[in-house]
Design brief:
The protein is of the alpha+beta class. Helix content is about 35%, strand content about 25%. It has one domain: C8orf32 fold, CATH 3.10.620. The strands form two sheets. A five-stranded antiparallel sheet has the order 6-5-4-3-7, with helices on both faces. It is globular and about 45 Å long.
């Protein structure tokens, strides 16, 4: 499988599955995460809980793409604020590339293709001016790192 249409189809199937069984953390779940400590969950933990933050959901999407054979998929972290302390100051998405450009899975929603890296950054940054970015392979994900410790990114 390497064609644009094939990977887009696989990615859409992953997003459809994520949409049926996973959701972004609700206000109540966010409050509990703050109270008991919030850390980057393994994909199996996110699937069991049924919810996650952007980094949790991006890791689920990345693992699913890799399981389907898309070895070049990566996580992209973008930062525009005081990440690790301030809310809404950065974001994680899962990215893969086809002949048509970059595609991203953003909290279970497939977006793209984006013809340039700048277009990808703009979308991943959700309209914010991205100050920096970082790529992660699945093996580089620091699972069980606390949100506050994620400031190191």
């Amino acid at each position: 499988m390497g064609s644009q249409k094939a990977w887009q189809t696989v990615a859409q199937e992953i997003c459809d599955e994520m949409g049926s069984c996973l959701h972004y953390a609700t206000p109540e779940q966010k409050a509990l995460a703050r109270e008991y400590g919030c850390w980057w969950k393994f994909p199996a933990e996110t699937r069991k809980d049924g919810f996650g933050f952007c980094y949790d959901l991006a890791a689920v999407a990345l693992q699913a793409l890799i399981d389907e054979g898309c070895e070049e998929a990566r996580l992209l972290f973008v930062r525009w604020g005081d990440w690790g302390f301030a809310a809404n100051s950065g974001h994680f998405v899962c990215v893969f590339e086809t002949e048509a450009g970059y595609h991203l899975i953003d909290n279970g929603v497939l977006k793209g293709p984006f013809p340039t890296f700048d277009c990808l950054l703009e979308t991943a940054g959700r309209g914010h001016r991205v100050e920096c970015y970082r790529w992660f392979t699945f093996e580089q994900i620091p699972f069980h790192t606390s949100y506050v410790s994620m400031r190191m990114f």
